């Protein structure tokens, strides 16, 4: 492929801005397109849990999950909820979702693929943060998983597969957990610490800093909504926006949950869905964890950020347009107070913030990273689901390698957009 192409990157979230940095490093000219502010509250990059969990290799769907679907439909506040009104539209995606986790062998295949994508992610992010002048936002000090009992851990398929793909951890008994986390509720009697993992102290500020670094390195930012891709034969000639065309030689679709329309416009109707997520954050709490913790019973991550103590997690299938169900954020708040009984119960409402956003998710838990069928001038980089922030560092490197026609640093067959076409 020719060097120094003009690349338009659609989407200025974590994947988009890191792709811009890496494409500039490869000698390309870069224009970022996004209607919103990089790192702003409208973006999934802003509101995620902040974990850099290089061990998050298990897809959401596991064997036997189909048995739970009736409960998901009946409980709008459960860890995975499906709105009845959206079910007909979501059904094709849900079927693929269930099939992707039908057997342990299928889940294992995804685990090996995601391990390639996520391994060393905290180190990659640390280097990027240093380049962007915000090294303090990335910490590589491990994360803890808390369980009510050893049995909850031993019976978890996910941990058996993590061991198989090379993840290592330190096991803690109840006393060792208390020494590390004295404020954690005593109902948690077993824990594991994944020391290779890390965290981001302010995901929104981090993405904003990366965007500023890309701009300082020569990228341009256009505030607009991309609506399509213009081709001449198999050659890309422009990206279409609501305010006009932007001529270019190559494009990267990294528009998160809103990438589906763009891929369909060039003949790739990919099964992308939004797993709607919520977080709750307490400003200046008087208690909480010393480290970042995931509670196995609440299915949520608790993480200190520079803005406060954040709890994030759970999934809602209801599409891009439905109004938020803020009771889901209240459930996270209640879990947080339950996990840490020393948190004052009279914290003013003004210090409790809630957020809602859209995880871009493929049915099998693996993102799409690869070329469009119609043209190698178009690169897809979206659909990371629960591993968007942690997976963005290596994804950006892969995007730059694809743009330059180089051999990708990891096998991309498991992430091929054509696997669902």
UniProtKB/TrEMBL annotation:
Pfam families for this protein: DAO
Keyword Membrane attached: no
Boundaries of every FAD dependent oxidoreductase domain copy: 6-402
InterPro entries attached to this UniProt entry: FAD-dep_OxRdtase, FAD/NAD-bd_sf
This protein's name: FAD-binding oxidoreductase
Domain of life: Bacteria
One GO CC term on file: cytoplasm
MF terms in GO: oxidoreductase activity
Keywords: Oxidoreductase
